[in-house]
Amino acid sequence: MLSRIYPGAEGLAFLQGLSLILFLLVFLGVVVMVITMRKGYIDKMSSMPLDFEDDQSTNHGGQ
User: Fold this and answer.
1) Burial call 22-38: b when 16+ CB within 10 Å, e when fewer
2) Domain edges within the chain
3) pLDDT score for 35
4) Rounded CA separation 16/14 (Å)
5) Tell me: the pLDDT tens digits for 6-63?
6) What are the residues whose beta carbons fall under 8 Å from the beta carbon of 16, sequence distance 6 or more?
7) Which candidate in 9, 17, 39, 62 could, as Cys together with 2 as Cys, close a disulfide (CB 3.0–4.6 Å)?
C-alpha cells in the first residue's frame, strides 16, 4: 500500500512490521507495569492532586 503513495517505497516494507512490533512491545510493557504496580503507590499517586493544602506552606515564590 505504501508503494501506491510513494513509488520508491518497495524496500521500506519492513518498516510496517517493525512499527507494529514496537507498538506491541510498548503496549505490553505498559500493561505489565500497570498490573505489577503496588497498591500503596497507586493510592499515593491518586491522592497527590488533593494534597494542595500541604503544598501552600512551601510555596516560596507565590502569593
Assistant:
1) eeeeeeeeeeeeeeeee
2) 2-46
3) 94
4) 5
5) 776 677 778 888 899 999 999 999 999 999 999 999 888 888 877 666 555 555 555 5
6) 2
7) 9
Q: For cell 512499527, what's the residue?
A: 19
Cell match 506552606: residue? Answer: 57
- The whole-number pLDDT of residue 1 equals 61
Whole-angstrom distance, CA of residue 54 vs CA of residue 47: 12
Question: Which cell numbers in the block locate residue 56?
Answer: 501552600
Cell triple for 32: 505489565
Cα→Cα distances 4→7, 8, 12, 14, Å: 6, 9, 12, 16
